[in-house]
Amino acid sequence: MDISIVVPIFNEEENVQRLHREISSVLIPLNKKYEIIYVNDGSRDRTAQKLKEIKDKHTKIIHFRKNFGQTAAMDAGFKQTIGDVIITLDGDLQNDPKDIPRLLEVIEKGYDIVAGWRFKRKDKFSKRFISKGAKFLRKTILNDKLKDSGCTLRAYRKECIKDLNLYGEMHRFIHIILGMKGYRIAQVKVNHRKRIAGKTKYKASRTFKSLLDMVLLQFWMRFSTRPIHLFGGAGVLSGFLGFILLLYLTYIRLFNNVSIANRPMLLLSILLIIVGIQFLIFGLMADILTKIYYKNNENYSIGKLEE
């Protein structure tokens, strides 16, 4: 199989059939073996029926029992792919399937991931405003260099996603996760269209969820192999501050004959020492768990082996 298309679908009954026609009309002239995988993410309208009507020899359909979210849908689709190149796009017709050949051209130049850049977005101002805020957070926290990290239209080589496990809202950060492993990423301008049917699934609350995922990803990027460096560093700092305060209190008690029994500083110094010890213990436990995790999961990626 040359190409696998993965399309998460949720309540898109009015768009499914047109989307399938557009994707097929683009793929057939390429003269490549292809498959189209639709992941019905627990749709509550007639999406399942519309998908059944377009089923053909090139099509696979995954039906979730309920709505699990776009990340879960993409992960399920990835795990069913057998193509050398995997292309993802949204099911709302805002991504243009005519851009697929352009993604393939760039990935054939040696890149591992090609991300679409919606340089002329056709979304409402409120959605674009929220996206700009999310982009600022990604750039600040994760040093994300892509101009459009929210565009679903992307192409991946099969080896990039074969060991990828997605959860939470992590589909927005696939390129960052793969970039950590050394895969080469390119970005190309793609067409973006107005939504002509159905309702947007985008909500402002996603930004908050994404913020938490960013913090988690930043921690994983910097401390996944040695969490003791974070927790241990915080523990040493806290314990050192507590020790200095306790040393000061001891000095004024012994040499200035000042009572320290009712001083809040005494409680603070003891608290800092206890917190420091706890951080050190957390760091040691996290380091042990990391060693167990990496026993079966390498923290490196091999590009080529020459013998």
List keywords for this structure.
single chain; 307 residues; alpha/beta; Spore Coat Polysaccharide Biosynthesis Protein SpsA, Chain A; 2 domains; 7-stranded mixed sheet; 10 helices; 47% helix; 12% strand
Structure description:
The protein has 2 domains: 3-223, Spore Coat Polysaccharide Biosynthesis Protein SpsA, Chain A (Alpha-Beta Complex); 228-293. The chain contains 10 helices and 7 strands. Helix 1 (16-27) links the parallel strand 1 and strand 2. The protein is elongated. The chain has helices spanning 16-27, 47-54, 70-80, 100-107, 125-142, 158-161, 174-180, 205-223, 228-255, 264-293, and strands at 3-9, 34-40, 59-63, 85-88, 113-117, 154-157, 185-189. The relative contact order is 0.11. The two termini are 28 Å apart. A 7-stranded mixed sheet has the order 3-2-1-4-6-5-7, sandwiched between helices. The protein is 47% helix and 12% strand. The protein is α/β, with parallel strands linked by helices and 307 residues long. Helix 5 runs parallel beside helix 8 and helix 9 (228-255) packs antiparallel against helix 10.
Major sheet: 7 strands, mixed
- Number of E-type strands: 7
Low-pLDDT regions: none
Structural class: alpha/beta
Question: What is the N-to-C order of secondary-structure elements (H for helix, E for strand)?
Answer: EHEHEHEHEHEHHEHHH
CATH class of the largest domain: Alpha Beta
